[in-house]
Amino acid sequence: MHSHAEAWERVVEGTHLINGVPMFTFILKRIGVAIPTLFILVLLSFFLMQMAPGSPFTGDFNMPPEILANLEAKYHLDKPLWQQFAYYLKDLLQGDLGPSFKYKDYTVNELVAQSFPVSITIGSLAFLVTVLMGVGLGTLAALRQNSWIDYTVMTFSMVGVVLPSFVIAPLMVLIFSISLKWLPAGGWNDGSWQNMVLPVAAMAILYVAAVARIMRSSMIETLNSNFIRTARAKGLPRRHIIFKHALKPALLPVVSYLGPAFVGIITGSVVIETVFGLPGIGQHFVNGALNRDYSLVLGLTIIIGSLTILFTAVVDILYGLIDPKIRVGS
Amino acid sequence: MASISLKTGTVNKMVKEESHKAVENFSDQLSNERLEIEGRSLWADARRRFLSNKAAVASMVVLVAVTLLIVFGPMVSQFTYDEIDWANMAAPPSMETGHFFGTDHLGRDLFVRTLEGGRISFMVGALGALVAVIIGTIYGSMAGFLGGRVDNLMMRALEILQSFPFMFLVILMITFFGRSILLIFIAIGAVSWLDMARIVRGQTLSLKSKEFIEAAVISGASSTQIVFRHLIPNLLGIVVVYASLLVPGMILFESFLSFLGLGVQEPMTSWGALVNEGATSMEVAIWQLAFPTSFLVVTLFCFNFIGDGLRDALDPKDR
C-alpha cells in the first residue's frame, strides 16, 4: 500500500514515469498522435466528398443557373477548394455540422441531437454488460479451471467470438420474440427496458465472449504467480486473495482491450439499430449512405471518428498510469 | 623443450590431417547418400503437429468441400443466380422442383445464390490475406529492420491509420461514390495489412539480434538482400498463421457491409446480403435465413479452427 501511495504522489506531482518518460510528456505525446489523426480524418473525409461526381444540387430537378449560382455562393461552393475546407473547419470547430441534404428543414446537429441519446444508452449499457459479465465469467472459468463451468464459458466464448452480430441478432429475435414471445422484436418505445434487452444482449455478446477469454487466461497466469503463492502461504482467505490481490493485475489486459471493444460496439451499433429498428445514429448512417446525404454521413463519420480516437487515447493513457510494468523505470 | 614442441607440432599436424580426412569422408558419405541424417525441418514438424489437431483437419476437409461446391455448384445447377422461377416464388426447399435450398421472394434459386455469395466472400477473404501478406510483411520487416528514426516514423503512420474508424470511412465513400464491389476491395486492402505489419515488425526486431543476421551484415549483404533473403523466410510461420486468422475477419467485413445493403449490388449477392434478406422473412420462410447463415457460420468456424491449428503448429512460443 505504501508504494501505491507513493506512486499516486508522483502522479499528482507529475514526476510519475510512463515508458521511461514523465507522465505529462507521455500524455502529451499520446495527444500528439490523436490530434493529427483527427485532422487527417476530417481532411480525408472532406476531400473524398469533393471527389464525388456531381454537386449536391444536380440531379433533383433542372435548376435555373442563377439559382444554382446563388445556392453555391450560400454554401461557399464557388470558392477554391482550400477556402471551402477552411470554412468547413471553422464551422466544425464551432460545432456546426451544416444542414442535411435530404431531410428538409433539419440540420445535421438536430438529427444527431435526436438520435445520439438512443445510441449512447444502448452502447453504454452494452459496454457495462461487457465489462461486468466478461470479467465475471472469465474469473469464474479461471477459478474452476477444467470444470464444466470452464468448458461452458469457453464454448460460449468460442461461439460468441465467431458469430457476427448480424447473425446473432436475427436469431435472438427468432427465439425470444417470434417463438417465445417474451420480448418485442424491435422499436424503441421511448426506451422501455423490454425494448432494450435484445439489442443490448446482441451487441454485448461478442465482447463478453472476448473479454471472458482474455480475463480467464490472465487470471490463470496471475494465480500462478509468486506473490499469490506468498499470499496463500501466509494463510489469507481465498476470497481475500482473489479480490484484493489477483483481480487488479489480472484486469490489465482487459483494460487494454477496452479501446477496441468500444470501437467494435460503436461499429456494431449500426447493424443492431438496423435489425431492431432503433432511431439511433446507426440508422441515420445507413439511410444517409443509401440516400447519398453527404453532410449527414460526413458529420456522423467525424463525430464517431473523434469519439473513437479520443477513447482509444484515454484508454492508452489509463493503461500507462496503472500498468506497473510500464510504471517501472523511475 | 624444442623436441617437445616439435612433438606436439607433429601431433597437431596429425590430428589436423585426421580431422580433415574425417570431414572429407563425411562429405563423401553425404554426397553418396550413404549416411542419412534423421531430422525434421520446421515445416515437417509443423505439418505433423497440424495433422494431429482433429478440429483443424476436419475444418480443412469441410472447407475444401465448401470451396468445391462454391466453384462447381453454380456450373452444374439448372438455374442461374438472377433467373426468376415464376412458378416457385418463396418456395420451400424441394428435390422435385430442383430448388434444393428453396427460392427467395422473387423466385430466384437460393442454392445458386448462396454459392454465388460464397464466391464473393472467398474472393474478399483471399484478397485481404494476399494484401496483408504482401504489404504487411514488407512494411513490417522494413520498419523493424531499419529501426531508429525510420521505424519511429513508419510506426507513427501505422498508429494513425489504425486509429481510423475504417468501417465508417467506407460507408462515407459508399455515400459519395455509390455502391460497388471495387470500393469494398479497396477498403479491405487498406485495412487488412495494418495488424500484420505490426506483428511482423515485432518479430523482425527479435530476429534482428540473432547471429545469422549479424553474419549476413558482416559479409556485406545489402539491406534489401537481408530483408528478402534472411528475414522474410524466417517470418513466414507467423505470417501464415496470421493470414489464416485474417481471412474470416475480411469475410465478416464484407458481410457486414452487404448486410446493411451497402455491399454488392442486386442481382449479385453475398452471404451478408442473403442473411439480411432471410432475416426480414424469417417468420414465414426460415429456409431463406437458414442456408446462407449456416454456410457463413460453418465457413467462419472452419477458418478459425484452421487458424488456431496453424498457430499451435507454427508458433515458436509453444514449442
Report on this structure:
The complex is a heterodimer of chains A (330) and B (319). By secondary structure, chain A is an all-alpha fold. In chain A, 76% of the residues lie in helices and 1% in strands. A two-stranded antiparallel ribbon of chain A has the order 1-2. Chain A is built from 13 helices and two strands, in the order αββαααααααααααα. Chain A has helices at residues 2-13, 23-51, 65-74, 81-93, 108-143, 148-162, 165-179, 193-223, 226-233, 238-276, 281-291, 294-322, 324-327; strands spanning 17-18, 21-22. Chain B is built from eleven helices and no strands. Chain B is elongated. The interface between A and B is large, with 50 and 40 residues.
What share of residues of chain A is helical?
over 70%
How many strands appear in the DSSP assignment of chain A? 2
- Tell me the quaternary state: heterodimer
Largest sheet properties of chain B: none
Q: What gyration radius of chain B follows from the Cα positions, in whole Å?
A: 28 Å
| Radius of gyration of chain A, taken over Cα atoms and rounded to an integer in Å | 25 Å
General shape of chain A: flat
Largest interface: A-B, 50 and 40 residues
> What's the helix count of chain B?
11
| String of helices and strands of chain B | HHHHHHHHHHH
Task: Flag low-confidence runs of chain A.
Answer: none
Strand content of chain B: under 5%
Overall shape of chain B: it is elongated
Nutshell version of this structure?
The complex is a heterodimer of chains A (330) and B (319). With 330 residues, chain A is mostly helical.
Task: Break the fold down into its secondary structure elements and pairings.
The complex is a heterodimer of chains A (about 325) and B (about 325).
Chain A: H1 2-13, E1 17-18, E2 21-22, H2 23-51, H3 65-74, H4 81-93, H5 108-143, H6 148-162, H7 165-179, H8 193-223, H9 226-233, H10 238-276, H11 281-291, H12 294-322, H13 324-327
Antiparallel strand pairs in A: 1-2
Chain B: H1 2-32, H2 42-51, H3 54-76, H4 110-146, H5 148-162, H6 166-177, H7 181-208, H8 211-218, H9 223-259, H10 271-280, H11 287-314
Helix pairs in contact in B: 2-11, 3-4, 3-11, 4-5, 4-7, 4-9, 4-10, 4-11, 5-7, 6-7, 7-9, 8-9, 9-10, 9-11, 10-11
